[in-house]
Amino acid sequence: MSVLKAALVQLNNGPDIQENIKITEDLVRRAADQGADLVCTPENTCHIRFSSADKLKSSLPEKDHPVLEKLSGLAREKKFWLLIGSLTIKLSDSKVANRSFLIDDTGAVVVRYDKIHLFDVDLPTGETHRESDVVQAGRRAVATQTPWGKMGLSICYDLRFAYLYRKLAQQGSAKILTVPAAFTVPTGKAHWEVLLRARAIETGSFVLAPAQCGRHEGGRETYGHSLVVGPWGEILAQGGDEPGIVTADIDPAAVDKARSAIPALKHDREIIP
Asked: For 50, how many CA atoms within 13 A lie in the half-sphere containing its CB?
């Protein structure tokens, strides 16, 4: 398999979908013009709303979503693969999906993934999140074939659940794992890098993690620091605190080398309680 040039787009999204489309399209187009084979955007590529009620009210069905239409058209025009980290997709009057889309270079949706683990937490800082108030959790792990090997999809809080990535690497044969996110600042500073590197090391996979950054509606702040991590746990590229593009070359052969050196994916044992 050929070497993949991956680009992560880091965003600072507000509440207005149309305004966010303009900024995102510009960054994605720039990444494609720089020769990226795969461009990845973060969680909440559409918009970030402060309250659950506003999130539900402002969400759209997949068939009507302008972000999906605009970015899939750009992938078709520029002939690159695209991971839309997630869009808030309206499912009913009371629920949405936090849904990731992998799109090929013809603009077709190859696969969808609905976030499984929902962010329901009370942080020590006093910050509270209840994603399950309006988000319907997914139930299916998703891995799919790409020109660079199998890719396994996840979203943000999924990162804390190592068994998901082990399943993607073992049963899904994934060599590349995607973790688009909107990590909070306190948890990002404490855990973002170490968790991403751990998932890469545990599975011997590349990890692509595009992130939201900065201050958003309602005073919410996200950590940024988009990361590309290699299968030996090495950081290949890293973003900062501002919107922009992070790129790295990915050689799928490095996955086989790492898994051959430490074949931990083959060493599961049944544990008797």
From this structure: 6
Q: Of 171, 173, 167, 174, whose CA–CA distance to 152 is shortest? A: 174
Predicted model pTM: 0.96
Is 157 in contact with 118 (CB distance < 8 Å)?
yes
Q: In whole angstroms, what separates CA 23 from the centre of its chain?
A: 18
pLDDT tens for 114-137 read 999 998 888 777 777 789 999 999
Report, as residue numbers or ranges, the catalytic residues: 43, 115, 156
**DSSP string covering 140-196:** --EEEEETTEEEEE--GGGGG-HHHHHHHHHTS-EEEEE--B--BHHHIIIIIHHHH
Grouping H, G, I as helix, E, B as strand and the rest as coil, residue 70 is: helix
> Domains in the chain and their CATH numbers?
4-262 (3.60.110.10)
Buried b (16+ CB within 10 A) or exposed e, 25-54: eebbeebbeeebbbbbbbbbbbbbbeebeb
